[in-house]
Amino acid sequence: MEIFNTFTRSAGIHAFRQDSDKTVLFAGPCRPELLIKLSAIGYQGIWAENLFMAREELLRIARENPDPVKAHQISLSAIFCDIRFPIQEIRNFLDDIQEFTVLRTVPVFLIVTHKNSMREIHYYKSRIPQINDLIYADSNPYVIDHKIRFYQHFNHIRFQHPVLMLGSETISWKERIDYVFKRIFDITVASFLLLMLSPLLMLIAIAIKLDSPGPVFYISLRAGKGFRLFKFYKFRTMVQDADRQLLEIEKLNRYHCQHQQSPKFVKIKNDPRVTRIGRLLRKTSLDELPQLFNVIKGDMSLVGNRPLPIYEATTLTTDTYSARFIAPAGITGLWQITKSKKPDMTVEERTSLDIYYATRRNFISDIRILFSTPFAIIQKEEL
Fold first, then answer.
1. Rounded to an integer, what distance in angstroms lies between the CA atom of residue 104 and that of residue 170?
2. pLDDT greater at residue 175 or residue 247
3. What is the pLDDT of residues 244-300, one digit of tens each?
4. Could you give the dihedral angle defined by the CA atoms of residues 299, 305, 307 and 311, in that order, rounded to the nearest 10 degrees?
5. In whole angstroms, what is the distance from residue 291 CA to residue 299 CA?
6. Alpha helical stretches, state H, the chain
7. Are 265 and 347 in contact (CB under 8 A)?
8. CA-CA distances (angstroms) from residue 129 to 168, 230, 250, 330?
9. How far apart are the C-alpha atoms of 242 and 224, rounded to whole Å?
10. Given 38, 39, 43, 205, which is the most exposed site by the fewest CB atoms within 10 A?
11. Where are the transmembrane segments (predicted)?
C-alpha cells in the first residue's frame, strides 16, 4: 500500500498519517479535501478508487481482527462511500463486508454534495439500510469526528441488542408485531387528535400572534432515534430571539454543571424569555401539540425519549449515555411522568430513565406511560 501526502491521483489504494491509531476508509473518486481535513484532527485515511479495492482492504482488516468480542477495538473508525456509485453496487459491497462480525459495528456514511438533490439522497438512504448517516463532503471535520464517535457507540450497543435492529432478520416476530402495533397506534391517535383539536390549535395560533411578534411555531433541529436529525415543531412560547439569549442566562440553568464532560441539559425556572401566553401553554403542555405532525411523519412516536437539541445531544456520545438514542423520540415518556413526582431530578437520573426505557420498552409499557401522562400534567410544576 503506497504512502503519500500530496494526494496526486494514481491507481490503487493509498494511505496517509501512518502514525495515527484512528483510520477511516473512503471509497470513491479522489476527494483529497475530505481526507486532508480528517488528517488534520488525527485520522489516518485510506482511499480506494472503487468498491472492489475497498472491499479487499476491509476484508484484510477483518482477517487481522477475527475476534468478535474485541470488534470495537479495531483501528478502523469509519467507512465513507461516495453516492456516485450505483446503488446496487453499494448494497452488495456493504452486504459483503458485514459478513465479518468485526466490521458490523464500524459506522458507514454516504458522502453527498450540495449538488445532489434531496430526492436522490432520500432514494439512496431509504434503500441502503446499512448507512448510518449522510455526510456532506464540505462538512466541518469536528462535526464528522463527532458523528464517527457517536455511531461507533451506537452500533456497538445495537450489536449487543439485535432486537433493536428493526428490519434485521434477527428480530423476532413478536418484536415485529410490537413495532407494527406501535406505529399504527401512533398514526391513528395522532391523526384523530389533530382532527378533534384543530379549532383549539387555531385559537392558540391567534393568541400567540396577538401576544408577541414572531412566528406561531418554533421549529428547530432535534436528535431522535439513532441521532437522526429532524425538524421539531412546537408552539412558540418564548420571545423571537430566545436562542441568542441562552448564553446570557446560562447561570440560571437548573442543570448547570462545571464539568465539560458531563451531559448538558437546559431547564430554567421562571425563564425570562417565556411570553405570557407561553407560560400558560407550557403549564398545560399545549405547546407540545404540533409534535403530532412529527408523529405522523415518523420523526417521533407518542411515547419515547425526548428529542434533544443538538447542543444537548452532543454531550451524550459516550458508552454510558448514547444508549438513550436506541429508543424513538417521543412526545411523552418515562422521564416526563416521573419528574412530576421528583422535580429536582439530576442529569444522571434523567439520563438513566431514558436508558432504562430504551432498553426495556414495549407496546404495553408505552400504553401505560401514555395513560399516566394526563395525571403528570396535572401535577406539573409551575414554571
1. 14
2. 175
3. 555 555 555 555 554 444 445 555 566 777 888 988 998 888 999 999 999 999 899
4. -150
5. 9
6. 32-40, 51-64, 87-97, 118-127, 141-160, 173-211, 276-284, 291-297, 310-313, 334-339, 347-360, 363-378
7. yes
8. 9, 18, 40, 22
9. 22
10. 205
11. 184-208
Q: pLDDT for 115-132, tens place per residue?
A: 777 677 777 877 887 888
Q: Is the pLDDT of residue 223 over 60?
A: yes
Q: Is the pLDDT of residue 241 over 90?
A: no
Q: Are 107 and 152 spatial neighbours (Cβ–Cβ below 8 Å)?
A: yes
Q: Do 333 and 351 touch, CB atoms closer than 8 A?
A: no
CA dihedral 256, 208, 281, 353 (to 10 degrees): -50
> What would the 3-class secondary structure string for 18-71 be?
CCCCCEEEEECCCCHHHHHHHHHCCCEEEEECCHHHHHHHHHHHHHHCCCHHHH
HSE-CB of 117 using CA atoms within 13 angstroms: 3
Burial of 155 (0-12, 13-18, 19+ CB in 10 A): buried
What pLDDT was estimated at residue 3?
A: 34
Look up residue 2 and give its amino acid: E
* Sequence-separated contacts (24+) of 56-61 with Cβ below 8 Å: 56/13, 57/1, 57/13, 57/25, 58/25, 58/97, 58/100, 58/103, 59/96, 59/97, 59/100, 61/102, 61/103
What does the alpha-carbon distance between residue 345 and residue 275 come to, in Å, rounded to a whole number?
25
- Return d(Cα 238, Cα 227) in angstroms, integer: 26
Residues facing 229 on adjacent strands:
223
φ/ψ bin of 28: left (φ > 0), alpha (ψ from -120 to 50), beta (otherwise): left
Residue type, 47: W
Sorted by where each begins, the domain ranges of the chain are 2-160, 173-378
Contact between 285 and 237 (Cβ < 8 Å): no
User: Which residue, among 371, 280, 266, has the nearest Cα to 308 in the 3D structure?
Assistant: 266
3-class secondary structure, 250: helix
The x, y and z cell numbers of residue 122, run together, are: 432520500
CA pair distance 169, 302, nearest whole angstrom: 26
Q: Which CATH superfamily is domain 2-160 in?
A: Response regulator (3.40.50.2300)
Tell me the three state secondary structure of residue 256.
coil
